[in-house]
Design brief:
Helix 1 runs antiparallel to helix 2, helix 1 runs parallel beside helix 3 and helix 2 packs antiparallel against helix 3. The protein is built from three helices and no strands. The longest helix has 31 residues. It has one domain. It is mainly α. The chain starts with a helix and ends with a helix.
Amino acid sequence: MWDLILTIILVVGAVVLAALASFMGVFLAMASDPCGAVDCNFDLITAGFLLGTIGPWVALALTVAGAVVLLVLRRLAFWVPVVGAVLIVLVLMCAFWLAGAGVP
């Protein structure tokens, strides 16, 4: 029973983290602000923006699906949202790197 309660609490935390990460990803559209005077790679900036806004929700969906499957199989599942939170942060870091690579 403790695993179910802890998993639910951690999944709710992962939802909040995904929402915050996606909100931060929206600001990657501003990476193209200095592109008036220099040439930028808008494809990389757009890819970083899309990864930053959509990627955390994909990672969250994988996290919830994995946790539900393990809970149905009656296995320990509290670790899945923890790994999912790390994945959300890594996706956001990759999005920032990708958008930053488009600006010289």
